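Subject: Predicted fold for Phosphoserine phosphatase, 297 residues

User T.R. writes:
Posting the sequence so we have a shared reference for the thread.
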Amino acid sequence: MSLPSILTLVANRRDNTLSKEAIELGRDIVKGAAPVTLSEGEAVEIPFTTKDRVAAVEAARKALGTEQYRVDTIVTGTEWRRKMVLISDMDSTTVDGETMDDLAKLNGTGEKCAEITHEAMNGKMDFAQSIRARAMLLRGLTVQDLEKTLQGFKLADDIEELVRTMNANHALTALVSGGFTWFTSRIAKVVGFDFNYGNFLEIKDGVVTGKLLGPILGPLQKREHLIDLCKRRGVTIKDSITTGDGANDIPMLTAAGLGVAYHAKPSVRKKVHEQVNFCGMRALLFAQGYHASQIIK
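User M.O. replies:
I've generated the structure tokens; pasting them so everyone works from the same file.
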């Protein structure tokens, strides 16, 4: 059975322009109708029908996700496009960097921590084991060290636009991380997320003990938060969008109505078909059918 679908093409407005050639190539690949401009020189959507959306997006990405074009391609259905729940990962997604790796550098354990992070984010190490091991490498750091690391973060391109626009359209938004609540609470406040969830790092008298308090928030718990937020908003999981980069994000990415691998690890890109590899977070709004004029800056 042929499924009514939308191919969204997005170029990074900071260093690229969505060319007519790229648009026509995308249209030819999916045998689509006339493109609809969402943002001049940045994003279009192309209606088409297909029996296999996965094959369609992979064909489009193979042709356009090259250094020649540098265009992100996302295929969705025509229903449930405007999502009512957003969950974003923190490290290397909402912010550019890995919290624990950056902290460990201040403690002289950066190389070991980065090695564990790499193994965990590529699915080669149990997440709970990895987070406890990395937390221990931070023992002795002070709150001032945490503040210094926080100040060094750069937010992902357009993440504030994504959250503001979805909040304004009555969606629930949440920052959900396998990292620490000390950071998620502060970053969520800056960006404007409604909720934040993470792991509790023990701090006594202003010093990190290296211990984690309470149950570990890992891959399955991220998915549970997605389910809970959908229930709270009174919508089905089809009405949700999630984004992340690591192996611990895969359960929530594959469960959501639209799960987007954001500048993700190779192991994630193998399992999550909708991807943003060149652009910022505006791509997630265009994939939902938002026009540039509807984005809140």
